[in-house]
Structure formats: structure tokens, C-alpha cells
Amino acid sequence: MQKSEKASLWQVVKAVFWSFVGIRKKSDLEKDAEMIQPSQVVIGGLIGGLFFVVSILLVVKWVTS
Amino acid sequence: MAVVQDVHGHGHDDHHPTGIMRWVCTTNHKDIGTMYLWFSFAMFLVGGFLAMGIRAELFMPGIQILEPELFNSFTTLHGLIMVFGAIMPAFVGLANWQVPMMIGAPDMAFARMNNWSFWILPVAATLLVSSFFVPGGAAAGGWTFYPPLSTQGGMGVDMMIFAVHLLGASSIMGAINIITTILNMRAPGMTLMKMPLFVWTWLITAYLLVLVMPVLAGTVTMLLTDRNFGTSFFNAAGGGDPVLFQHIFWFFGHPEVYIMILPAFGVVSEIIPTFSRKPLFGYSSMVYATASIAILSCVVWAHHMFTVGMPSVGQLFFMYATMLIAVPTGVKVFNWTATMWRGSMTFEVPMLFSIGFIFLFVIGGFSGVICAIVPIDIQVQETYYVIAHFHYVLVSGALFAIFGAVYYWLPKWCGRMYDEKLGKWHFWLSMFFFNLTFFVQHFLGLAGMPRRVPDYALQFADFNMVSSIGGFGFGLTQLFFLYIVIKCIRSGEKAADKPWEGGTTLEWTLPSPAPYHSFETPPTIK
Known about the structure:
The complex is a heterodimer of chains A (65) and B (526).
Chain A: H1 9-21, H2 26-35, H3 38-64
Helix pairs in contact in A: 1-3
Chain B: E1 3-4, H1 20-25, H2 29-57, H3 68-103, H4 111-130, H5 155-184, H6 197-228, H7 242-276, H8 283-296, H9 312-340, H10 349-372, H11 374-380, H12 384-414, H13 420-446, H14 461-491, E2 524-525
Antiparallel strand pairs in B: 1-2
Helix pairs in contact in B: 2-3, 2-4, 2-14, 3-5, 3-7, 3-12, 4-5, 5-6, 6-7, 6-8, 7-9, 7-10, 7-12, 8-9, 9-10, 10-12, 10-13, 12-13, 13-14
């Protein structure tokens, strides 16, 4: 099988973002499955989790200020 | 999914050792899965017996049957046994049976470790159950064993700590086995995004287990040294902090909730498409939602501790994060509903349990969002409202999914059909008695009845009596389930290889009952 090209950073960011909402278009998913490496998803997911925590913290700071 | 299977060379499929040593020494995933399932059912009966004791005592106000100390032990051990002895091993049993068959693997990756991770369970169960008979009795500080209650108490608490160690070790080994099996032993062509959703949810659950079970092990070890070796991790008098325990415990405890519910999501995601005769709506979004639930579950733990005292920044953070978990969970519920939409549906028992699961789990989910709101949580903390909430999640959620799974796969496991009529009775009786037991507990909680008390004020008497009647009914109904399963195994009608018309996963390509060794030659998935 021909080795597929690697996903761009933006594609990983998009995949992780939609995973947090829990929705993904089928055509995008197929592209993801082909191009994104598992390690990219794991690292992207962890950074996404961190981003999630920080953004809630910012909202909380804003609410309580 | 198109499958090319080598049907030759199955002549030695059913050669296996016999007698007791078959079960003691077995490394076969099907045997081990069977043992897990029977063990968890036995523990379910023990935990159920304790629940019956609790409901009997609460049938009327005043102390009738159980001394307060024994009542506390009953609530504590009921929780521990049901969580660690019944629900979790049942799902591991399902994984043992199904994961290799669903991915086209011949067995689990670490077959001997599989045997070991099962056989330490009965040891842990013996420790838990026998702790009732040691001086000082069983642990009585609640299933969350908060200090300082858990730093008091007799050797029953130490026995519980060792039991939790063993159960945790078993879960970690089981999880490692499942991860390795799924990642390394899939049949050719079975890419990750072709895996059945039950396999996906178990893969993610297994990672959660590996992440949080060591945290629990560390917590109980600190408790053990506080009790026996003069440390003061959780003792304020020695410079420690009991609130530290709660943070560490719930860092384990909240993902634990998802450990018990994600495989249930997987089961329901197998059953609903089968009986709707449609592929699962939004397969990929289900995978994505499961992954994001797993990540989010690690950053919400302190919503169990709102009344402990924390800065408002902390309260708001955990409140917002908790409420956001409802988003991916809601996606799943919509996907199941959309799968059924315009499907050619039939309502066999697995489907009934799955629809019952969706209906009641949504109630439990909503009451969870209600509890996530800090000012409300401060009102309902430690009341029966919380008891009602988590029983809607764990009984009508996890347990109903397990029942559904057993009815769904029993024909494949034993080659015989269960009695459809009796199964429907089991479902409807469970549905009725479950709601009778737990719906009224919302009212009790809102009216202020505290949990973990053997006696209560007179105004709570009527709803408690209703709840107890429901509890006894639910308990008896589960003995009926045992009868249905035994009847199926002994004299059920012969099951077809694919008893469910809409089944598409690999296990239905195998004969019923599934041969002792299956997929020795991996099928090719196109």
C-alpha cells in the first residue's frame, strides 16, 4: 500500500476540535483516517484538553472579575 | 462488511481440557469471559443481598433489623461490591468473550495474564465478604472510604484496602490485555475505523483504567500507611489533609464512572443498529464523542466535593467543565435515536433493554447536570437525590446494558436461544421495579433525607416504603434472570449462527455456539 501523506497541523486541530463536540463529517473523517497518525491524534488531544482547561479558566476569571 | 473466512481446518476446535482444571488453568478467552460473567453475577447477588438488607431496614422508620454500625457496613460493601465486583468484571467478561471475536483475533494477547487477572478476583471478593466476620466488622465509612472514618475502624478496613488493591491490579492487567489485543491482533483489513463500536469504547475505557487505577492504588496505600505505619497523609493532626484524600480519590472516581458507562455505550451501539436494521448513525462521531468524554472525565472530579469548601473559581471551573460533558454524551443519545429513526425495528429483549437504557440513562444524565450546578449541589449533597441520580446511571445505565448484552450474545455463547417471553417479563419487571425503587428517591432527596442513615424522620416514611417494595421486586426479578439464563443454557432452542437478522459484526460469521478456538486463521475484511 502506498504510504499516504502526513496530515497538516491545521487538519489535526480541526479533527480534535470536532472530537470535543463529538461530530465529524464523513468525508472529513475518511480524510482524517487516511492521513492523521495515531500519535498526532494523541498529542493533539492532550493539547486540546489543555486548551479546554485554560479556556474554561479564562471564562471563570472573566465571570468572577 | 464483507468477510472472507477460511472455513477449513476447524477439526480440532472443540478439544479442550475437562473438569475443574479446565477452569483453573484455562487461557482461553471464552472460558475466562464465562468465569468473569459468572463471578460478576455472584457478586451482583451478594451486593444485591446487602441492598435488600438496606431496603428492609429503611422499610419503616426506626431501627428494626440492622444495628447502625452494621447498616453502615452494608451500604459501604454494597457500593464496593457492586462497582468493583459486579459491574466492572461483567464488562471485562463481555470484552473477553467479544473483543477477540469482533476483531477476528484467535484469543487475547496475554492469555496467561488473562487467567491471572481473573483468578485474583475471587481472592479479593473473599477478603471483602469475610471482613464482615472479623472483630470490628466490615468497613463502614462508605464506598468512598473518606478519612477520618476510614482511618478508624478495625481490620475490616485493612481487608477492604487489600481487596481494592487486588481488584485494581486485576483491572490494570485486564486493561493492558485489551489494549494490546485491539492494537496488535486485528484481522487483516480491520482498520481502527472499521472496528465495532463496542471494541472502540473498550479501547478507550482500557486507557482510562490504566490512567486512574494506579491513582486509586496509591490512595489506598497511603490510607494503609496512615492506619498502620504512623504516616499522616490524611491526618490533620500530623500535618496532613483529609481533603487531599478526596481530591485523589475523585481523580480516580470520576473517570471510574465513565469506565463503567463507556462499555455500556458500546453495547447499546451494537444492539440498536442490529434491531433497527440500519448502520449506526454517525459512527465516527460516536468514536470521537467517546474519546472526548474520556478526556473531559479527567478534569471534572471536584464536582463531587463542592461542599468541602473551595474557592469560587474552583467551583465555577468544575461546574462548567461538568456541564460541558453533557455535549458529547448528548451527541451519543441523538445518534442512537437517529439510528432508530425510520429503521425496520423489532423489539427483542436486547433491544428493549437498550431502549430502556437510553430512556433511563437520559434521566440519570439530566439529574447529573442538575447536580453539577453548585448552588443546587450544595442543597442535594449527601441526600437521596444523589443516590437516585447515580443509580439511574449505574443500574439503568450500566446494568441494563449488561443485561442487553447477555441476551444479545447468549445465543452465540451457548448455542441456544433464551426464552423471548420470559426475557420480556424480565425487562418489564426490571423497568417497573427499578423506577419504583429509585424515582421516588429523587423526592426523598429533595425533601432532605440524608443518605447512609438507618433511621429517618416520619415524613419520609411513605416514599421509603414504596422504594423498599420496588427494591425487593427488583431483587427478585434478577433471580428470575438467573432462571432464564440457566433455562437457556440447559434447554433453550438451538440458535442459528446468526440469530439476529441485522447483525453485521464478525462474531456472527462463526458457528453457534462459538467454537472453543475461533479465527485461528484470521478472516480478511474488505
